[in-house]
Design a protein that fits this description.
The structure holds 2 protein chains of 2 kinds. By secondary structure, chain A is an all-alpha fold. Chain A is built from 12 helices and no strands. Classes of the chains: A mainly alpha, B mainly alpha. Chain B: It is found in: Cell membrane.
């Protein structure tokens, strides 16, 4: 490469790399260092405490409970979302009455695709306000209002969706699923549409039912997208900060009585509220480790032979 | 392509020509029930998406007493006062803060992101691969890992609760996806055009801005929409970086933060219609962007995940 080109390359890379280093990479690296200190964040004085923060984390019942809640989210959010999205995507693309024995999408599938995707462009803050109104614990809440109208719930004792330890996690899962299904539906739809139609037709001629053609043809050919969806939903389930911190009670959420706590809310509370910066950094490192383990495990567990077509 | 075909059920062994019509009739019946069945579920889910949103918008026309009383009352007086009240109660400021930040952060993201992606995609130099992975790796780590040091970094630069601080942070955190996406795009552009421009005496910089960047327009639009949506909806970064540092500081909350702030104030002074009106106001630009760029939004967000 000529000398002028080096100058050009360096010139173009200078600002992006500098910004990225200062605001992303360097903080990532610093976290590991700070997690070994008892830094309070108020001043630059802190001392090295080794692995004390990590040791304390394992004795912190709230954080351990939070990990447990994240794991629950990790199990249920991807499974429910992917199943619903697959179901709807298959309906949209192959649910129609095929003329001449073929397979076609239902009428109005464009409309459904537009509507289903809409929650995806709303911010999670809007979702939080919306679903707090839906889950209101009096007759004014959409859910309680409907249940009272149907006579399933006593108007004087409506359900406290977000304040009931047994319900709060499920209430949150519903929001995430409501938000995510449309996106994964579009993702799966795109993959389904790239499957050649003659495969289905061949299967139909061979006498396959729709169920069979779904499980034997669509699903195996979609496996790559399902795997991607799984990893992304898993990462989302490890986070959950916005919904938990804004919908549940307590400083940075987590209520009632820490029953909906996730790692991110415990971390933010320790950092911004208690000022325990070093301790919060240790939580950040644990979150990173769990996320990495999760990605590797999920990619391994869902690995299949890749099918080309 | 033979693998999945082999998996399909073989034709039933004892199938005779006499059985065939019955089989076809069965299938038609299956098609009809399935059609009704699928329409039912599809319509139900569509209702479950639309109804809560409509209900929320309608609620902004109600009074507090009406909201608390019954979930399904119809608003009695259709006045738009509540929207101007919401605007004055802070939504206007939050909205403007968000717009100010995005007006700078989105173009800067696009500019720096495509510059880095372009150089990495088309100029071989030692360390090219390393730099590319260095950029892309950032997408793998949870943002929580960086939050504490990031706060102190921005504080040391004296940029807490300032627009420029948040703008720079947004640009930096949008880098991984932008570089990744545009890198793939610049690779597909024909080399001949580039060579022709250089032969005609254009400098590398000029070739980039006047030839390559315009050719990458479809990619730029997708990434642009994605970054706009992502930065408009960002909540965690402003929560940490946009807090007034002392009582005299102005509130520079962005819209997402402001809505949550309004929601939390409801505990003290109840004015729910204002909150719902605020949400409606916040929803409208997103709805407009989405409906007008619906295809690109879906394509952009999907390709973001597919890689």
């Amino acid at each position: 490469m000529r000398k002028g080109q080096y100058r050009f390359v360096a010139g173009f890379l200078l600002v992006p790399v500098a910004l990225y280093l200062i605001f992303v990479i360097w903080p990532y690296i610093q976290t590991f260092g700070y997690s070994l200190t008892d830094w309070k964040g108020q001043s630059q004085t802190f001392s090295f405490v080794g692995l004390d923060n990590y040791e304390a984390l394992f004795r912190d019942d709230i954080f351990m409970g939070a990990i447990w809640h994240n794991i629950l989210f990790l199990v249920f959010i991807p499974v429910i979302t992917i199943l619903l999205a697959l179901f709807f995507a298959f309906m949209l693309n192959a649910g129609g009455r095929g003329r001449a024995g073929g397979v076609s999408g239902v009428a109005g599938s464009k409309f459904y695709r537009v509507v289903y995707f809409f929650p995806q462009v709303l911010s999670l803050a809007i979702l939080a306000v919306l679903f707090r109104a839906v889950y209101r614990s009096d007759g004014g809440g959409m859910l309680n209002g409907a249940l009272v109208k149907l006579g399933l719930v006593d108007a004087d004792r409506p359900v406290e969706w977000l304040n009931e330890p047994d319900f709060v996690l499920w209430a949150l899962i519903v929001v995430v699923v409501w938000h995510g299904v449309g996106f994964y539906l579009v993702l799966f739809s795109a993959a389904m549409q790239s499957i050649p139609k003659d495969i289905y037709e061949a299967a139909l001629i061979d006498g396959a039912s729709r169920g069979q053609s779904f499980f034997r043809i669509t699903l195996p050919l979609l496996w790559d997208s399902v795997q991607t969806a799984w990893v992304y939903l898993g990462i989302a389930a490890m986070d959950m900060f916005i919904l938990v911190s804004t919908m549940t009670s307590g400083e940075f959420g987590g209520g009632p009585d820490h029953h909906s706590e996730v790692m991110a809310t415990v971390m933010m509370r320790n950092f911004l509220y208690y000022g325990k910066s070093g301790y919060a950094c240790a939580m950040g490192v644990i979150m990173l480790l769990l996320t990495l383990i999760l990605s590797v495990v999920m990619l391994r567990a869902t690995r299949r032979e890749r099918i080309e077509f | 392509m033979s693998a999945p075909l082999k998996e399909t059920a073989p034709p039933p062994a004892g199938r005779t020509s006499a059985k065939a019509p019955a089989k076809a009739g069965e299938r038609r019946g299956e098609g009809v029930t399935l059609n009704a069945f699928s329409h039912g579920f599809l319509a139900l889910w569509a209702l479950m998406i639309v109804l809560p949103l409509l209900w929320l918008v309608l609620s902004s026309f109600k009074t507090d007493a009406q909201i608390a009383g019954s979930a399904f009352g119809w608003p009695e007086n259709w006045t738009f006062d509540v929207f101007s009240r919401a605007w004055e109660k802070g939504i206007g400021d939050y909205f403007l803060n968000t717009v100010v930040v995005l007006v700078f952060s989105v173009p800067l993201t696009m500019l720096f992101g495509s510059m880095a992606a372009y150089v990495l995609a088309r100029y071989p130099f030692p360390g090219n691969r390393f730099l590319y992975y260095f950029f892309v790796a950032g997408a793998m780590f949870p943002v929580f890992l960086a939050l504490v040091p990031l706060f102190f970094m921005v504080k040391r630069l004296d940029m807490l609760n300032t627009y420029q601080g948040l703008i720079l942070v947004y640009v930096a955190y949008s880098m991984p996806f932008t570089v990744f996406f545009m890198h793939a795009f610049f690779r597909t552009l024909p080399t001949a055009v580039f060579e022709a421009a250089i032969l005609d005496g254009a400098s590398h910089t000029r070739t980039f801005f006047q030839v390559m960047l315009p050719m990458a327009k479809p990619g730029l639009i997708s990434v642009g929409i994605f970054n706009t949506l992502g930065q408009w909806n960002q909540f965690i970064l402003p929560t940490v970086l946009m807090q007034p540092q002392s009582g005299d500081d102005p509130e520079r909350y962005v819209l997402t933060q402001g809505l949550i702030q309004l929601q939390q104030q409801q505990g003290y002074a109840s004015d729910l219609p204002v909150l719902f009106a605020g949400v409606t106001i916040a929803m409208i630009p997103m709805l407009v962007v989405y409906l007008s760029f619906q295809r690109q939004v879906q394509a952009g967000l999907t390709s973001a995940t597919l890689k």
